[in-house]
Amino acid sequence: MTRWAGVALTDRRAERRALLIDAAYALFGTGGEAALTVRSVCRESALNTRYFYESFADIGELLGAVFDKVAADSSIPQAPRDMAKLRAGYILVDSGSYQDVSSRVEVLTNDTNPLRHSAREALGLSAWKEGKAKDALALFEQIATDETAPRNARDRASMLSDLIRGAGDAS
User: Which uninterrupted H or E stretch holds 60?
Assistant: First the structure.
């Protein structure tokens, strides 16, 4: 009898996904991002690569799931959980939708949050990627005009605003 005999397909997939995330979490904790490869995660989880690709398109998507796990862990202090939300959001700028990014970082954009500038940048990049140039421009301008934002963040936001305007996307 096999390991998955008698387990419903959706339950098997969910269990394998959880095993892969747990394996990646352990590897990330001991070796950082460089320790995460499809092969290392599959070896750690005792699953073959077929199951990896059943759950994740690539290591980036898995890493986002690891950061989501950290963000949801109430035993971890809030600051690292917020950083995990932000990191997951940045990963999803490339592979997810604006809604995916927003669901992780929107909560970080309030005016008192120390991560607000980075969260707004992630939202702006995601909005621009989805063709929402006006929304992106508004977010980048919010960063560029905020005197409390780090200079490099203001400069990057100004550059991105100029790129949007220069491409004619802001109209």
Answer: helix 59-72
Give yes or no for a contact between 157 and 121, defined as CB atoms under 8 angstroms apart.
yes
Span 23-78, pLDDT tens digits? 999 999 899 889 999 999 999 999 999 999 999 999 989 999 999 999 999 999 99
pTM (2 decimals)?
Answer: 0.84
- Tokens representing 88 are 């997951």
**Distance separating alpha carbons of residues 89 and 68, to the nearest angstrom:** 9
d(C-alpha 71, C-alpha 85), whole Å: 6
In the 8-state DSSP scheme, what is residue 57? S
Contact between 41 and 13 under an 8 Å Cβ cutoff? The reply is: no
Write the Ramachandran bin of 36: left for phi over 0, alpha for psi from -120 to 50, otherwise beta: beta
Q: 139 with 127: CB under 8 angstroms?
A: yes
